[in-house]
Amino acid sequence: MKPLLYVTRRLPEETIDMLSAHFEVSGWESEETPVPREILEREIEKVDALYCLITDTIDAALLEKAKNLKVISTLSVGFNHIDIEAAKAQNIAVTNTPGILTDTTADLTFALLMATARRIPEASEHLRNNEWRSWSLFSLTGRDIHHATIGIIGFGAIGQAVAKRAKGFDMNVLYYNRSRKYEAEEMLGASYQELDELLKKSDFVCILTPYSAETKDLITARELKLMKKTAVLINTARGGIVNEDDLYDALVHGDIYAAGLDVFAEEPIAPDHKLLTLPNLVALPHIGSSTIDTRLGMCRLAAQNLIDFMQGKRSNIVNG
Prior knowledge:
The chain is an alpha/beta fold. The protein folds into two domains: 116 residues, Rossmann fold (3-Layer(aba) Sandwich), CATH 3.40.50; 182 residues, NAD(P)-binding Rossmann-like Domain (Rossmann fold, 3-Layer(aba) Sandwich), CATH 3.40.50.720. It contains twelve helices and twelve strands. The strands form two sheets. Strands 8-7-6-9-10-11-12 form a seven-stranded parallel β-sheet, with helices on both faces. A five-stranded parallel β-sheet has the order 2-1-3-4-5. InterPro entries: D-isomer_2-hydroxyacid_DH (IPR050223), D-isomer_2_OHA_DH_cat_dom (IPR006139), D-isomer_DH_CS (IPR029753), D-isomer_DH_CS1 (IPR029752), D-isomer_DH_NAD-bd (IPR006140), NAD(P)-bd_dom_sf (IPR036291). Keywords: NAD, Oxidoreductase. One of its GO terms (molecular function) is hydroxypyruvate reductase [NAD(P)H] activity.
């Protein structure tokens, strides 16, 4: 008999076919709406494996209901939506999908940086709202990107990929990371800085560090006041790293020039959230990895992680 697998969202047919060769597969049929908690609580009692998304909260209370669960595969690089310690205590392996979305997320990060710096969404709305009357010397002027200084917080694979793109714009690359990356420094011409110095020197600050207890509220009013008033803050990592109340105040009072966010503390963000009222904020709905090729690749990798585990291979396990 095949092991039982529950999938928390509708997946592409090719991924289901891949999984069905190794599992008895059941799952939530919606592509857009997360599986209700009560259904997930019921299903997790029965299954040997779980295929989930970053929008699914897999906490200790849920894991306590799991009787036979051996492995969880998340369709994401981040795994802060899963209680890793609780899973480990119950001998449940957790896997993720690293590497495959590195370049795609770096592309989006740089696109968001450019859109925010040059006020692209605002300019588009200006035109669509029939507000374009004539050429004006300082209408919709933004910030230059070329030859500016970019500070990258978190210099893993995605951070380094952003640095490569920045070098194409002749930017001066600074970075902060828990540990120095000497080889990457030499290869990319990047300079290590302590966090406060990076914030003071950078024209663009890009957050690309994983979310953890240490990085929660890493950027608060104190850090924002260290930044240049002309600086732009970009976050494509995780919500919660930037304190949103403090960011709102900084944008309103001109402590920084603008911000671009692909992630928020609560997702989806409420449409009446105060950040969304600001003209100097560009907001995206967590689309860092959102290209067809990358998302299909993530689906396949998350599936392969489950298959590998059941065959005794330990692929992309994040909890030991």
